[in-house]
Amino acid sequence: MNDSEEYQQRKQFYDQLLTIYGRKPVLEALQQPGIQIHRLHLADSNKSAAILDDIVAIAQRHNAEICYHSKQALSRISRNGKQDQGVAVDLVLGGYRAYEDFLKTAPNQYELLALDGITNPQNLGMILRTVAASGIAGVLLPKKGCAQIDPLVIKASAGALFRCPILRCDDLAAALQNFQAAGAKVCGLSSHARQSLGEFQALAPTIFVLGNETHGVSSAVQALADHNLRIPMANGVESLNVAITASLLAFRHQLTGA
Amino acid sequence: MNDSEEYQQRKQFYDQLLTIYGRKPVLEALQQPGIQIHRLHLADSNKSAAILDDIVAIAQRHNAEICYHSKQALSRISRNGKQDQGVAVDLVLGGYRAYEDFLKTAPNQYELLALDGITNPQNLGMILRTVAASGIAGVLLPKKGCAQIDPLVIKASAGALFRCPILRCDDLAAALQNFQAAGAKVCGLSSHARQSLGEFQALAPTIFVLGNETHGVSSAVQALADHNLRIPMANGVESLNVAITASLLAFRHQLTGA
């Protein structure tokens, strides 16, 4: 293996890591099923505490490496020295990577969900669980405007987060434009759209965008959408929970057998 | 209209009423969108309080009848004098009725969901919202073993509860046997089942039973199920959130166009 290949493999591995910090958040994350721990990081200035013993015990059960650092070095790992409380953990998320990596080797046809302002951690966790179970290509999760992966999200995902193909991006609209440049179509979901999901046929790679729980798809994304789709609703109901909408999109091929 | 018809109409109306009691629960329920208030009941012994003023103001905005009672009479309405705090409200649930009523006039073909030990109010609310939006015939909600409709459930349903066809029963297994006697088939959902949902064809009225969030379908219901079905899952995910499963069942005909 040459240096460049080794570098790529290491980059790929480190890209899958998610760092969580703070005593309670770390303990709660480690208590979830399906967790994969790379390294536990502790400040060597920590005084002994029951919660730290619990955290170390779980890390040991998982045979995770435990590293001690100066307070300053730890704050470079947590990137939040004010709130890390002397503890951080690197979790391995099997399907976590930059969307650019996905695009480089994307198949001819695929479907993704994209999250545009999903701020409720329960909803995010349920969506990640559903996407993992559905087998679709993944979910595009921007750093801006969405809830980020934290212990609440891990809990709501029932551990499925560790198996979910999550494509990271910074800004959703910019990422969607790159997907469009590569031939993908962007579909915004909206209860006001004229076209129903059942009428839509995906003839190209397709990204379904789910908008904020209250305000829907953002205007920046709306402006670049190729289609707007609605899920028909009975009894005058105005909208579905966003995680429910996500599940109908992600599982529609299994249900239709298409 | 003869006496018997009048009695039937009145019975039908009163069957749709759901009584909620306690100051905070009543206020929270009344603050939800889509709420329909029949009567607000107050104890004439209540001392003035800001929360009561808020409750009365909402009832007035809805042109609801406001009735004053002795403490004792109010406790007969709330059926819980110890916790009603001098307040109860009758809400009108448009689709709320006894399952026996549904069976009397049931169409030749229909699909229902049945809830077997759904204890999380968030899940119950999401299921009721989804069922209302899907247009399927209804959801069978037993008094025993499930979360009951309370302000948390109303909130999680985003008000759709007031439009959801909810069929009340006491004991689920007994009700399912009555449905079976009337020609319906009972399908338990389980991630361990051999048959997948996509392989199942509903040739008779069908009731899909959703089990407890942790323990699944109860043994009493399992014993009488005609089919056991699973939803195929990718990436080694073991289960879906029960409200997600409910949505896939309720919406599968819209998605398939069948």
Architecture overview:
Two copies of one chain form a homodimer. Chain A is of the alpha/beta class and 258 residues long. Helix content of chain A is 38%, strand content 22%. The first copy, chain A, contains ten helices and twelve strands. Chain A has helices spanning 3-15, 23-30, 50-61, 71-78, 99-104, 121-134, 151-156, 172-181, 219-224, 242-256, and strands at 17-21, 37-43, 65-69, 87-92, 96-98, 111-116, 138-142, 166-169, 185-189, 195-196, 206-211, 227-230. In chain A, the strands form two sheets. In chain A, strands 5-8-7-6-11-9-12-10 form an eight-stranded parallel β-sheet. Chain A has a four-stranded mixed β-sheet with strand order 1-4-2-3. In chain A, helix 2 packs parallel to helix 3 and helix 6 (121-134) runs parallel beside helix 10 (242-256). The A-B interface holds A 95, 122, 126, 129-130, 132-135, 158, 160, 163-164, 197-198, 231-241, 243-244, 247-248, 251-252, 254-257 and B 95, 122, 126, 129-130, 132-135, 158, 160, 163-164, 197-198, 231-241, 243-244, 247-248, 251-252, 254-257. Chains A, B: Keywords: Methyltransferase, Transferase.
